[in-house]
Amino acid sequence: MLAKPDGGRLREGPQWAYEYKLDGYRVAMRIAADGTTVLTSRNGLDLTAEFAELTGVLRGRTAVLDGEVVVYNESGQIDFGLLQQRRGRFQKHRTARRDDPFTDVPVRFLVFDLLQLDDELLLGRRYEERRRLLTSLPMPDPFHVAVVPSFSAVELAAERLTPQRLLERVAAEGHEGLVAKRLDSPYIPGKRPDFWCKHPLVQTREVIVCGWRPGQSGFTGTVGGLLLGAHDPATGELVYIGDVGTGFTRQERDLLRDRLQPLERRSHPFATTPPREDVVRARWVDPVLVGEVRFRQFSRGEGGRLRHTAWRGLRADREPGEVTAPEPGRPQPAPLPTTRTDDHPAPPEVTNRVTVKAGGRTLALSNLDKPLYPDGTAKSEVIAYYTRIAPFLLPHLRDRPVTFVRFPDGVHGQKFFQKNVDASAPSWLPAVPLRGGGSRRGSDEIVRYPLIHELAGLVWAANLAALELHVPQWTVTGGTRNLPDRLVFDLDPGPGTTVVDCCRVAERLHDVLAGDGLTPVATTSGSKGLQVYAGIDAPAAQSPSAYAKAVAVAFERETPDLVTSTMAKVRREGKVFIDWSQNNPAKTTITPYSLRGRDEPTVATPVTWDEVRQCRRPEQLTFTADDVLDRVAEVGDLFAPIEQRRAPLAG
Fold this sequence. Notes:
The chain is of the alpha+beta class. It has 12 helices and 35 strands. Among the domains are: 23-147, DNA ligase/mRNA capping enzyme (D-amino Acid Aminotransferase, Chain A, domain 1, 2-Layer Sandwich), CATH 3.30.470.30; 204-322, CATH 2.40.50.140; 483-586 and 598-622, 2-Layer Sandwich (Alpha-Beta Plaits). The longest helix is centred in the middle third of the chain and has 19 residues, at 379-397. 38% of the residues are buried. Pfam families: DNA_ligase_A_C, DNA_ligase_A_M, LigD_Prim-Pol.
């Protein structure tokens, strides 16, 4: 029996119970009276040999148990990626015809239903009756087999909890979400009725692998991305639903290449030819492999596409015929009902504040489910991004006064700049008073800028919906401005040009800066343009501006049809504007790894010079928050040379 998506509305009422949504392989465990055990997947694969340590755990009763096999990571969280890696190692173990037991990664079987006990088939019994029988069974080895907790409405109320509060606890513990199950529901094999409703915290989808793109740059010789399909739920036809290029380890890319090459075919397998621009360099394969992706949204229209995808792994326990395309859009959480009856009082009021720990500090966060981007990216996801990127971002914020660009009503609402630390800021947040930080030219106003030195500071800022973090090219020590330690060229594409044109200018800048003994680093702006930085030792505060202006003017003189060094917008048509003025001590620039307040949660992203040289389409240098987290896991901090390799600035 399968759980039906709840459309973003967690079911509530006295007739419902709640279980953790698990992230593993769905498995039926069939046990004979002598302890002989057979494990099968949802699509009938025999997994007994693969999970041999789960056999023989229960004896004395004939039973059929329904549950999931899971693997835990070092933090005690269920980790589907580790389960996938274990499966890959098991396949190698079996291929090598090794006889020794395969105990590479411990697995555990988490049971949530009992389908048969002794000679009685229990499918027609109520869920609550099956659960009562299940929990009465002795589980002598909890390290291998355990029962998933279930929480009835009465039990939640006794603990002063609501379903929403339980969901918050589940999120904090790192689980995937909740499954709500009606107490009176029978078990209907192979069906997806309204009796079980799943409420995922992260959307995942099974997909059919229909093709792949060879990797480029650092991924040459392996898989760069996969082209995905699914069956139209109305017609049954195989349709193209997008691609995925992130979430792979290098080992997974190589294993996929080896699996896909024998399956190659000359033409695509879809009922309708996909758009040409979507399938450039595609190599098609027979649609026989099923995988799983995370995604944020399924776009509307006839050509629906999965958006913001990340790979989770192959699903050997699924058949291609089971995979259907999702419903368009992105489910939004609906408010829980607060009605009451005489028999069932309303649950305690749910406040919209959550207390969390961040690096040892305690913070109160609010409105976590509030969408800040049109694709539905909520404040909670913004906070999660800044939490995970913190080890790479914080070194580049150290001792730099930060200007926030806040979007309290989302990126399509009113935005405002905030420099001053107001009275609501936590007492532990460091701030530096600097003169001349007012908005008026020549202002002598003193502004108390925040300094973000730790994770808690980032989380606090993200809770303010401070999506963008801007910093100057200098640091402060003891309340005093230091000389600039960064040089920056901000390349802004004018009308009729794109970041591709910026890349051609950046290549020339690279050669000039390297010729002057500097180490240039490129980063996207997270919007339309590109920036080129270098770490410097400046002889005076105005030296970087003078140097950058001289370079920009020289570029304009050499190629006046391609480059302008003049800020006037009427001069930018068909040209790249080299904004040298960002080096003015009064100016700030978006910091690398900061989000941008655009239609999508794009990020100012450091890139390699190979990526700059090979860029031929704007989307090649467009990175979302999920993309960046995958990138830093793969390549580390590409902006680090700015702090590590400073050189004197030429006069």
